[in-house]
Amino acid sequence: MEQLKQAIRERGNVLSDQVLKVDTFLNHQVDVNLMAAIGEEFARLFSESGITKVLTIESSGIAPSFMAASTLGTPLIFARKKKSLTMNNDVFVSSVYSFTKQETNDITVSKDFLDAGDVVLIIDDFLANGQAALGLIDIVHQAGAHVAGIGIVIEKSFQDGRKLLEEQGYRVESLARVHQLSEGRVTFVDELTT
Ligand code: 5GP
C-alpha cells in the first residue's frame, strides 16, 4: 500500500535493525485518514471471506481495525492485555511473548463475544515473530470459531512470523512488507531487484 509505505519512509523512525518506531501515525499519535484507508484495504482484501468478527489486540491494533470492521459491517473485538476487574472468569486466555517488551503476558477475550459459528479476521499493527497473531488464533480456536486470515499493517519480513503462520495454513495479508531496517533506512520487499 503506497500511502502506508510513504508514511513509514517519511514519518517512521528506525530504532535498530530490528525495531521500527511509528509513533507519529500508528502507535501513539494516530493518522486517522491513513488508518481509515488501511481499514478499507483490509475490508477489500477479505470482502469474499464471509467475516463475522474482526479481532485485534489492544491498544495499537484498534485504530487500523476500526474501519475494517465498519466497512465489513461486523463488530470489532480487542483482546485485553490485562484482565479487567469487571471481567469475570468467563474468558478465553492465551499467553503471548511480547517482542518489544520481552516478557510473556496473558491476553483475554470474554466468551460473550466469540461463538463457534464466527468467521474471524485477525488484525494487528506489526508482524515480527508471529506470537501475538498465534495468541489471537489460539483464542479463536478456543471459541471453536474459524480464522479467515490475518491482516497486518507492517510486516517485518526478515523475522519469522509470516513463515510460521503460512506453515500452519493461514492467509497473511500485510499492507507493507519491510525487507530490511539498516542505517536508519527502510527497504521494502517489493523494492528489491531480482
Ligand atoms: P510478534 O508477536 O509478531 O513477535 O510481534 C508483534 C507485536 O509486537 C505487535 O503487536 C507489536 O505491538 C509489537 N512489535 C513487533 N515489532 C515491532 C516494531 O518493530 N515496532 C513496533 N512499534 N512494534 C513492534
From TrEMBL:
Subcellular location field: Cytoplasm
Protein's name in the database: Xanthine phosphoribosyltransferase
Entry binding sites for 5-phospho-alpha-D-ribose 1-diphosphate: 128-132
Annotated GO CC locations: cytoplasm
Keyword hit for Metal-binding: no
Domain of life: Bacteria
Job description of the protein: Converts the preformed base xanthine, a product of nucleic acid breakdown, to xanthosine 5'-monophosphate (XMP), so it can be reused for RNA or DNA synthesis.
Family: Belongs to the purine/pyrimidine phosphoribosyltransferase family. Xpt subfamily.
EC number: 2.4.2.22
Assembly, per entry: Homodimer.
Catalytic activity of the protein: XMP + diphosphate = xanthine + 5-phospho-alpha-D-ribose 1-diphosphate
Gene name, Swiss-Prot/TrEMBL: xpt
Native source organism of the sequence: Halalkalibacter nanhaiisediminis
GO function term, MF aspect, one: xanthine phosphoribosyltransferase activity
